[in-house]
Amino acid sequence: MGYCFTRDTLMMIVADGMGGHLRGEVAAQLTLQAAAAAFQRAARPAIADPAGFLDLSLRMGHREILRYQAANNLPESPRTTVVACIIQHGHAWWAHAGDSRLYWIRHGECVSRTEDHSKVQNLVNLGMITPEEQETHPERNKVLNCLGSPFEPTIELSGAHELEKGDHMVLCSDGVWSAMNDPTLARAVTAAPLLTSVPALVQRAVSAEGPSADNATALAVHWEGDDNDLSSQEVPDGAITTTIIVGLEEEQDADPEVISEDEIEKTIREVREAIEKTGEN
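^ thats the sequence. predicted structure below, dont judge the formating
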């Protein structure tokens, strides 16, 4: 998981490498790095077309995974599910492939969430099982869409949705949502400030699943509105903050679009100079 932000734009992303395939953790890492590299190019400081950006950046991750497979002569490609969200100018856009989810929570209730690309979700859509049965179905982990597949992935897009003060956006892997229903998850996230509620949510999921617990990852934001977003207002012009290290693993024959280490160092110097200039002013 990771996030990037400029003065105007926030990107959050969670990728869950798929078990049963080689190097799922690498697929997840490549997906985050490709998205972060794309964000550094597109967020100046806002993104002109957030939905188009999400579609393009996740497909870039898919291509990087296939490139990694070819470069390492793997018999099959690593694979990952992914969910990503852009928040900009009081609106949210999101995209996903697979069963990593986004929850939009307002007043402690789930307003909307992504629909899994899975066998069990298809059974729900056909009326063969109920949504409640979906959460505990034995085949709930059978995913029908992902990045890294031999086939071009379906990137499902949603947005633009206007946010209200107090809204929460939660991105998580199936190791979190499979341990509880939607109302329980919404209440757990909003029960306390995020610095407390998100770690508690993850721990609750792991404890509920016991020894068979899956990878439980969650990332969330509490929207306080543009006027109250003092942290982003203090970001210098041209600065980008990120928790994602941009630099693809085993970079032989690297994609020329990927930002180099020299460019990263140059960006860091520019950010430091901007911060020092802001302090002087």
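Strands lie at 2-5, 9-17, 80-88, 91-97, 101-106, 109-113, 156-162, 168-172, 218-222, 241-242.
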